[in-house]
Amino acid sequence: MYLQKVLYKIIFINNHNNNMIRKLQQSGKLYFVSLPIDWIKENKLKKGSELNFEYNNSQLILKTDNAPKEKKLVLEVEKTNPEGLIQLIIGAFESGVTDATIILKNELSNEQVKRIKTSLYEEYSLNISEISRNKIRVSIFIQNPTIEDSVKAIFNSTINLGRAALLKDKQLVEMHQNQVQFLAFTMKRIVNTRRELPNWLFIAEFIRLIARFFWMEYENKKRLPFIEKVLEILQKISNDMYDMDKLLDLYNDVLKLKELTYEGKERYYYYDRAYRSLVIILRELIKINLNKKL
User: Fold this and answer.
1) Domains defined along the chain, listed by start
2) Fewer C-beta neighbours within 10 Å, C or N terminus of the chain?
């Protein structure tokens, strides 16, 4: 989990590139600059919102008071069904909880303890802080990135996964697959806690499906040419997320993939799912770009 947090932080630092120029304005003895509307919306600011200033020589740093805060949850439950407990924990974290403690009135079996621990790690990349037959505690504290940075991070991890798949590097494939799982999980938290547009969540989920396709199929040499084509398109989409004309042009590249989803007369399921995922990612990005113009 520590490694995942470090990678997560590095990805957002590398993707953050919102440099812009503003002209200093004057009204009487008052000097001021306008603030980017996207930044205002992202931080849910309005007239009268308080901002913190720090300055040193030529630098002026402007901060909001929207840093992520710890949210703790303690629940006492009677049921010991592992699947139900797993979904309870996941639901809590997707709602913004940072520390969840589940106290069990009825003890878990050793097999149930193992099932919960394995599932939370393999399916959601979550490490358990503490687990016994009558108590489960999971902690996670995530940075407060923008929704666009979160999607970009999932794009990057999936692209890196595709590259590792073409190299048939099992260790890198597993690492990037875990990273995609973790980032997709945090996307749900961001959308749920900030009430963001669900389009971003659809995009993240279908990028995750493409990542899963890379992960499942990379050991089969027959699949590598298709993986390479999907990877190429995914890279272009990532580079041109806000260029409507280029996104529309990419539809032609995606449609060509449809012909490759067949093996003989039968359509191969995972090829088809990767193809359809690209179509949906493009569609949702176009919707987002249209909303920005309205």
Assistant:
1) 21-66 (2.10.260.10), 72-139 (3.30.110), 147-293 (1.20.58)
2) C
Q: What is the mean pLDDT of residues 282-290?
A: 90
Tens of pLDDT, residue by residue over 233-243, are 999 999 999 89
Distance, in Å, from the CA atom of 22 to the CA atom of 29, rounded to the nearest integer, reads 19
> 39 near 29, Cβ under 8 Å?
no
> Is-above-0.70 flag for pTM?
no
Q: Chain-centre distance of CA 103, in angstroms?
A: 30
Six-digit token string for 275:
């193809």
d(C-alpha 288, C-alpha 242), whole Å: 9
pLDDT digits (tens, 9 = 90+) for 147-200: 788 888 899 999 999 999 999 898 889 888 888 888 887 787 777 776 656 788
Query: Tokens for 44?
Result: 């849910």
Work out the angle at residue 205's Cα, subtended by the Cα atoms of residues 83 and 258, and round it to the nearest 5 degrees: 125
∠ Cα 231 237 240 (to 5°): 140
The pairing of strands 262-263 and 130-131 is unpaired
Instruction: Please list the alpha-helical segments (H only) found in 68-197.
Output: 82-94, 110-122, 147-167, 170-194
Q: Three-state SS string across 192-233, please?
A: HHHCCCHHHHHHHHHHHHHHHHHHHHCCCHHHHHHHHHHHHH
* 17 vs 8: CA distance, rounded Å: 16
The residues near 77 (Cβ < 8 Å, ≥ 6 apart) are 85, 88, 102, 103, 104, 105
